[in-house]
Amino acid sequence: MPQFQYVVTDTKGIRREDKLRASNLDAAMQSLTKKGYKVVSLREVKSAVGTTALPPVHEQIQTSLQKLKDFIPLNTLVFFTRQLSTMFSAGLTIEKSISNLMIEEKNHRFRRILAKVGNDLKKGMSLSEALSLNPGTFDGLYVALVHAGEISGSLHVILEELADYLEVMADTRRKVISALSYPGFVMIFMILIVSGLLLFVVPQFAEIYAKFGARLPGPTRALVALSQLISNYFVTIALLTIVVLFVGWIVSMTEKGGMVFDTIKLHFPVFGMLVQNSIMNKFAKTFGILLGSGVPVLESLTHVQRVVRNRVIVRALETSKMLIKDGFAISVALKKTDVFPPTIIQLIATGEETGEMDRLLDKAAYFYAKQVDAVVERLTSLIEPLMIVVLGAVVVSIIISIYLPIFKLGFALSRGL
């Protein structure tokens, strides 16, 4: 007899979910309604929820290459999702809606993907099945929400919420990139300036000083030695840097290496707080929209693991899933991991008591979005002058080291006179 996973609310509005066996979907629905439950989601269990949130290294590389190949700007995906919701709610079929959007689409790569989705729909596939065949464009969360909308019969509502969700995630990503881009730009600029001085300016002074045959001061000798090293082995150093970065990227995809990298990200001074708040914002927003769409808790957490993409948080969520299976409440399971902040745990606990988990998670997401804004503003005000001081100090140190022999010569001549 088939087994069905259900999500319901009881007469008090409390959310409940479990599994039951019935001869078919209608029989399962009747069984639940006879008990006075309001059915939010009901689906046949075909396979167990996966526990591996982050795939092996080779699959991650393949996915990265696929995403690069099928890259679609997020604004394009948001517009498509919102238009699809509008057309479907207006009475057009999904197949017709996709066909119309494909004709109007100006992005050639996305038009090709929509044409493929349209052909798969004509073959009898559901929208979620057709989208899942294009993982470089439509990720697991997108497919899961569309699937939930198909089952619940509220696909146009889910698509509208999905468009809003993608806009929020794009805004959060933009703020994080904005906070990290300035110091990154200044760092690259500083490396270019220092490299230019060491490759072109210092050698000229070294030649002049060599003609005098005098013993140079220690800082100047060190600077000349560094300049000669970079000049003689510039290509080797550049290739070695690229290899180190590539190896670091590969290591970051392994389980142990990824744990080290992700732990550093979360505890890095100043920037760690920005990363933590950004992840909590993703967690709350994603978890809330999945639960509100009728996706079961364990399945929702599995999708959340793929969205946060931080192994520390992923491992904590895996532990939470095991505790929830053993009968612990969601808030208690998350608290036992010692990873999630008290604010989000308290809001989830309140949501469990009131049956409004999705609404309170949305509030938590708003709270952490504001935290991201605050950290970005604080970083911008602190980092700009700090980076300018660092850049100035490095350049001034190099210039002083270059001219130090001249200063000493002038000082000796003045004493002689």
Strand and helix layout:
Elements: E1 3-9, E2 15-21, H1 25-34, E3 38-44, H2 57-69, H3 74-89, H4 94-104, H5 108-122, H6 127-132, H7 140-152, H8 155-212, H9 218-232, H10 234-253, H11 255-267, H12 271-292, H13 297-308, H14 311-325, H15 330-336, H16 342-354, H17 357-416
Antiparallel strand pairs: 1-2, 1-3
Structure description:
With 417 residues, this protein is mainly alpha-helical. Among the domains are: 3-44, Ubiquitin-like (UB roll) (Roll), CATH 3.10.20; 57-168, Receptor-associated Protein, CATH 1.20.81.30. The chain has 17 helices and three strands. It has helices at 25-34, 57-69, 74-89, 94-104, 108-122, 127-132, 140-152, 155-212, 218-232, 234-253, 255-267, 271-292, 297-308, 311-325, 330-336, 342-354, 357-416; strands at residues 3-9, 15-21, 38-44. Strands 2-1-3 form a three-stranded antiparallel beta sheet. Strand 1 (3-9) and strand 2 (15-21) form a beta hairpin. Helix 12 (271-292) runs antiparallel to helix 17.
